[in-house]
Amino acid sequence: MEEKMQHPVVGSRRVDHLKEQDDSLTLNYGIEDTPDFVTTVVLGFQNVLTAFGGLVAVPLVIAGIAGFGVTDTAYMISAALLVSGIVSIIQSKGFGPKKFRVGAGIPTIMGTDFGFVGPANAVINTMGGGIAGYLGGTMMGALIEIGLSFFVKPLMKFFPPVVTGSVIALMGMTLMPVAFEWVGGGVGAANFGDPFNLIIASFVFLIVLGINHYGSKRIAPAAVLLGIVIGYLVCIPLGMVDFSQVAQAQWFAFPQLFKFGINFDLKFAIPFVAGYLVTIIETVGVMQTIGEVTQTKLSDEDIANGVRADGVGSFIGPALGSGPVATFSQNAGLIPLTRNASRSVAIAAGVILMLMSFFPKFATLVSIMPMPVLGGAGILMFGTVAGAGIKSLSRVKMNNRNLLIVSSAIGVGLGVAFRPEVVAGLPGILGGLFSSGISAGTIVALVLNILLKEEK
């Protein structure tokens, strides 16, 4: 694998003020760097593996809500992978003229989001729209997000370091329960919390930790991939992998436009409005997090372009039979852990996702990976996101005002994340905005930043 010069200033968008001689700031591959082909593919596949659970979980749930059989469920999963690959490339590369650019141009993985599952159930079953109503409603809702993306720039002045640092730290903290759900064996698993699952997760955790810290500069960036592969292989003779699902999967599948039909009725778009507002808030936070860990100075326009890519992806997805997409935060934890911020690697991951969508057998082979294997790697990935937020806050002067903002944002965010039923009764859009710990904490930080006067 090609070795790059390790210096904290690589590429035209690298943050110039990060001049501390701190090894934690050193990236093997900066955002503008392009590793050799083999390295790019290996690191790209690593991105795919760490995000795969989230990529397939939502289409599985939506298919269950719609009452799909095996064939239609498999198609929806393949469509989700295809759309994730396409939009990941758009977000990571960036396309279009300056004023109408789509994509932030930073290494990002996109995928379907759980925030739309509740509204989907309401449209499909309660409102009687079926899957066609769900797809039509999300497409119309995506137009709202695209329109609002042009108003993100004026709002960025309300995101000073005390707000962004709080959001980044909160993002890692609220993701940790997800990692431990994987550690336990996955929600709903018959053997959830079995000590053997904890042993497997601990084994993978130690492998990733050891390779990342003691591995050479050629091996360390692939620590997560190696840990997951080794853990997967160990689980096979232990009887934790069921290959019968692979045998049942098709060899090849081709995407179809509007396979499940489409219904553009405005009433089916209304339940998704709050979901798209939450997505905008969370995308801003993820963009700032990725900018922090890639040592890239993002302009307000870059972040607006990232939100716009979310909207465009959410318009493309339903047309191909998938759902709306959002910017995944898993990649934010993977970047500092592997010291790889290359945009080319994220684009390669997008290509791999697209290829996997055409070959369901291969996608199924990845999807049957035991959850504790992914959980062992997830602890480190999500922990590094929280660490990046804490590091960002360390550069903020902790006077009384700023301490109140940080404490309130993290307190409310974690409270909502751990006890979402407390805010479940909030009416309408308010309930949607506070349905996520990240969005709830962000809103609190934004409001307090406006209300509390700056100390002289």
Automatic annotation (TrEMBL):
GO terms for molecular function: xanthine transmembrane transporter activity. The keyword DNA repair does not apply. One of its GO terms (cellular component) is plasma membrane. PROSITE patterns: XANTH_URACIL_PERMASE. The chain crosses the membrane at residues 48-68, 74-90, 102-124, 130-151, 158-176, 196-215, 222-241, 268-287, 345-363, 369-390, 402-418, 430-452. It holds the Pfam family Xan_ur_permease. Keywords: Cell membrane, Membrane, Transmembrane, Transmembrane helix, Transport. InterPro entries: NCS2, UacT-like, Xan_ur_permease. The keyword Membrane applies. It is a multi-pass membrane protein. Belongs to the nucleobase:cation symporter-2 (NCS2) (TC 2.A.40) family. This is Nucleobase:cation symporter-2, NCS2 family.
